[in-house]
Amino acid sequence: MYADLHLIIDGERLPARARPGEPVINPATGQALAELPHATDADLDLALEAAAAGFQVWRRMTPLERSLILRRGAQLIRDRIEAIAVVMTLEQGKPLAESRGELNHGADVIDWYAEEGKRAYGRVVPGRNPGVRQLVVSEPVGVALAFTPWNFPALTPCRKIGGALAAGCSLVLKAAEETPGTAVAIVDALHDAGLPPGVLNLVFGDPARVSGRLIASPLSAKVSFTGSVPIGRLLARQAADGLKRATLELGGHSPVVVFDDADVEAAADMLAGGKFRNAGQVCISPTRFYVQDAVFDRFAERFAAAARALKVGDGTAPDTQMGPLANARRVEAMERFVADARDRGGVIRTGGQRIGNEGYFFEPTVITDLPDDCLLMTEEPFGPVAPVVRFSELDEVTARANSLPFGLAAYAFARSNATVMAVGEGLKAGMVGINTLAISTPETPFGGVRDSGQGQEGGVEGLQAYLDVKLIAQAP
User: Which of 249, 363, 380, 457 is catalytic?
Assistant: First the structure.
């Protein structure tokens, strides 16, 4: 049921052979699924050379030709969705329904970019002198590098693959070692759709060694990274040494503001679904809950009840609503957050414990009555633990919501138009959802501000990130 793991370089599938490697662990059982081969330095150099050669082929193809291949690849992902979803659930843990949804979303992203790549238009700027023609054109930047995390092993690679390839770039993808099977299946599908050799290469290995060698190479021109703030800073410095542009989607700690005129029960139900999706391991997950005094008790009770009702178990079971955490480190982190919350006077409304001694399961947890300087309110939990606190006034809660250096996503629930406008403008984030959590679609920009990164993926902005602008001035 699991994947045949291999590197993919210059269109060739490279198995383990004498390469070093590591086991891939099923987080629901703690047992090994397969052995993952790591790329050697020679493999990484070969991937860069293949990407450089593939770029020369790919950039010369018309946008229509590139679009047809990308769309065939997206359809193959959909055709294989049941098999790939099982692979994703086995290696990442999320329920099968979430795996299917993520794969559909990833295919939609590639589809959208396939179409948008045909619209990377330039413009004609009238000359100041007779007969002078000034053309502004867009050209692919060259060989791009993509580094993706384990929490969304299909969607995040698809964002980077879609944007880079639709722009005419080639790509070396270093996907997460915890979830390699999903990336292998996606890259295989694109090659089966007719992608030329070298245009898309897939490697795995020690993250620091791989990123350092790839970014330092004069063959690479662009870096796209999704992950933690410290690693994002490191890669940005490495990219800056070569004056290479970088798109960074880093950590967050998304505030949610629930006003007293909101539909409290609907908001609580929606937020519970959003918070505990993928066991809370979502970069744009709602993670800090500020609820106005008048409706605090109603919200906290409804939210805790929804968390308590979730069926936690192996993601392959049909009735599972929340799967395990990705690894033992995440369980230890949840225990640390809960212990600190207890020490700071927090009230545990539900949850707070590890589940069983097999796999990496943790109870959906809701904690109230916490100070703003506790661990749970200042560090992203990246797990199924939710702090819920009170607020009184708009200006007060806006200041508290903006008090951290992060700025990826933020949410608010209210009916008043004045409140909606004020909070939408006041929250410092790259994405703000008002009465909705749906802020990630193929056609809209996805990215943060401040410590949550720079640049965007998705939308026209995600295509432009892989394009250089050139002026061609022509005199008679």
Answer: 249
Residue 283 is among the residues annotated as catalytic for this protein: yes
Catalytic residue among 283, 374, 380, 457: 283
pTM value is: 0.95
Task: Print the SS3 string covering the chain.
Answer: CCCCCCEEECCEEECCCCCCEEEEECCCCCCEEEEEECCCHHHHHHHHHHHHHHHHHHHHCCHHHHHHHHHHHHHHHHHCHHHHHHHHHHHHCCCHHHHHHHHHHHHHHHHHHHHHHHHCCCEEEECCCCCCEEEEEEEECCEEEEECCCCCCCHHHHHHHHHHHHHCCEEEEECCCCCHHHHHHHHHHHHHCCCCCCCEEEECCCHHHHHHHHHHCCCEEEEEEECCHHHHHHHHHHHHHCCCEEEEECCCCEEEEECCCCCHHHHHHHHHHHHHHHHHCCCCCEEEEEEEHHHHHHHHHHHHHHHHCCCECCCCCCCCCECCCCCHHHHHHHHHHHHHHHHCCCEEEECCCEECCCCCEECCEEEECCCCCCHHHHCCCCCCEEEEEEECCHHHHHHHHCCCCCCCEEEEECCCHHHHHHHHHHCCCCEEEECCCCCCCCCCCECCCHHHEECCECHHHHHHCCEEEEEEEECC
98 is catalytic: no
What fold, for 254-442? Aldehyde Dehydrogenase; Chain A, domain 2 (3.40.309)
Residue 1 pLDDT grade (very low, low, confident, very high; cuts 50, 70, 90): confident
Four-way CATH pick for 7-250+451-474: 3.40.605.10, 3.90.1170.20, 3.40.710.10, 3.75.10.10? 3.40.605.10
pLDDT tens-digit series, residues 185-215? 999 999 999 999 999 999 999 999 999 999 9
Map out the domains of the chain as residue ranges.
Answer: 7-250+451-474, 254-442
